[in-house]
Design brief:
There is one protein chain. The chain is α+β, with helices and mostly antiparallel strands. About 40% of the residues lie in helices and about 20% in strands. It contains six helices and six strands, in the order αβαββααβαββα. Strands 1-2-3-4 form a four-stranded mixed sheet. Strands 5-6 form a two-stranded antiparallel sheet. Helix 5 crosses helix 6.
């Protein structure tokens, strides 16, 4: 079986985005309506500034008791997020997510065109298992090289 690419495994084919002056409240509403766990922050259709995720809403807004109706997404977003190309294999994308501790990867194609977001939920158990095995192997190699 051929390995799937992140672009072909995405559950959402449309880009969920907001401008940097949107509020956290608006981001939460957009994510709820789109039934997704992240929103991309852009200032033009091909200029990705950051990403706001469900986890960001919890740790950067709620845990700090910020007002979601007045806090701007640009204040709590992850700036310059790690992105992958559409032809990236799912197992490779999951490995990046495991090693860097996040669950959403923007997919950016030629000409900086934003194609969507790959979520760990888009991966199959086999692909996650392959990435975990590779992450464990990488850790063992790093430990051995010391």
């Amino acid at each position: 079986m051929l390995e799937r690419t992140v672009y072909h495994s995405m559950s959402h084919r449309h880009v969920v985005s907001l401008g940097p002056h949107a509020t956290v409240w608006e981001a939460a509403c957009v994510m709820t309506r789109a039934n997704c766990g992240s929103v991309l922050i852009v200032d033009t259709p091909s200029n990705l500034l950051g990403i706001v995720t469900e986890r960001d809403l919890m740790t950067r807004v709620l845990a700090r008791a910020l007002n979601p109706q007045t806090t701007l997404v640009s204040e709590v977003m992850t700036r310059n997020p790690t992105c992958v190309a559409p032809e990236t294999l799912v197992a490779d994308a999951v490995l990046i997510m495991i090693e860097r501790g996040f669950r959403h990867l923007p997919i950016v194609g030629e000409g900086a065109k934003i194609l969507g977001v790959f979520s760990v939920r888009d991966a199959l158990p086999r692909e996650i298992g392959n990435a975990v095995n590779l992450a464990e192997f990488n850790e063992q190699v790093n430990d051995a090289l010391g």
